[in-house]
Fold this sequence. Notes:
The protein is an alpha/beta fold. It has a single domain (4-176, 266-274, 288-361), classed as Aldolase class I (TIM Barrel). Helix content is 31%, strand content 16%. The chain has helices at 40-48, 78-93, 151-167, 182-187, 202-205, 207-220, 244-258, 278-283, 298-306, 317-321, 325-331, 357-361; strands at residues 11-13, 16-18, 22-24, 54-61, 98-103, 120-121, 130-133, 136-139, 144-145, 172-177, 226-230, 262-266, 290-293, 312-315. Flavin mononucleotide is lined by residues 25-28, 58-59, 101, 176, 178-179, 229, 266, 293-296, 315-318, 343.
Amino acid sequence: MTDTRTLLHPTRLGALVLPNRLVMAPLTRTRTGAERRPGPLNVEYYRQRATAGLLVSEGVAISPEAVGYLDTPGLWREDQVEGWRAVTEAVHAGGGRIAAQLWHVGRISHTSFHDGAAPVSSTSRAADARSYTAAGYEPVSTPRALATEELARVAADYRHAAVAAREAGFDAVEVHGANGYLIEQFLTSGVNDRTDAYGGDVAGRARLLGEVVDAVVEGFGGADRVGIRLSVGNGTSGATDDDPAGLLAHVGGVLQQRGLAFVHYVEPVTPEGRRTDLTAALRSTWHGPVVLAQGFTPDSAAEAVREGRADAVAFGRAFIANPDLPERVRLGAALNEPDSSTFYGTGARGYTDYPTLPQRAA
Ligand SMILES: Cc1cc2nc3c(=O)[nH]c(=O)nc-3n(C[C@H](O)[C@H](O)[C@H](O)COP(=O)(O)O)c2cc1C
């Protein structure tokens, strides 16, 4: 068994110095209300988890167009900046660092969020997916393919959100390039059916990603505080690709050129639990820090770090249930079990009421 204390060694992601290698994965919790603005309950949730080496926020919509679910937060209005500032101040007061995950859902959305208009995508074909709307779970709506001329405006929306993230006191931003959302809708051959310069070969399909990254670097003010999350090879919400290794190698090169702080990769795992070798394809061209995610335990995470496959490892469900995850790893203590029935919803239950070790003992 690998010594999990490896995870408690410091590391560096660009300009960010992490006291440990346990990253809190981005986790949508649908608790920021119709205003899509963090309040005191959200501040408390992030404050509780400030001992993570790095916290990545839940997906934060960059613009009204970028929204796809009920009660998820945004970062396009001044009052949202104020709401997030209270979060970043609480995390900093607890000694932590936090990145904003900048999110555009693309076609994983519903007309009810857009005054009846169609969501936008690389394509006009609908995903086989559902969105949580005011009427409950609904199939996502058929999108409208973005016109070539609109893509500069999409990149500008990302830039605007990156400026807002800086104002809100975030230490970094993570571009959400994963999980079948807008950027992956451009990246993957199974979704992108465009005939313009933003489709076709890998260079065309990765063009929007490169332009978005440039806009975010400009907006936030430095590549060494910008990371990106990728999940190529998982096929989430129909985002399949006929050559995921080739796509990852190309995208890795695009990111290497820009000198980003980190690449956060949702590593595909087979149904039998075997990790695929796609991380090696990414690492063939990307030589900076890698954060791996998906199904890790402290043991398997320590092994990934020891093998040099990961510089840090993100934990999703474990951080939902264990606000003091680094301390539990340090002590080799048992973990609380997450309750999936309260992952999404409202209120403190299943959100801010998971006990720390001393609270459980008391
Ligand atoms: C409730 C929930 C919400 C999630 N929200 C996001 C999100 O906003 N952005 C994102 O990139 N991934 C999101 N994910 C995926 C997680 O970041 C993570 O990749 C996934 O949970 C697998 O890691 P785990 O096995 O450590 O939980 C979410 C997962 C869960 C369970």
